[in-house]
Amino acid sequence: MCHVIVTCRSMLWTLLSIVVAFAELIAFMSADWLIGKAKPASSEDVDNRTGGSQEPYHPTLGIYGRCTRISHMQFSRRDTLCGPYAENFSEIASGFWQATAIFLAMGIMILCTVAFVSVFTMCVQSIMKKSIFNVCGLLQGIAGLFLILGLILYPAGWGCQKAISYCGPYASAYKLGDCSLGWAFYTAIGGTVLTFICAVFSAQAEIATSSDKVQEEIEEGKNLICLL
Question: Which domain of life is it from (predicted)?
Answer without folding.
Answer: Eukaryota
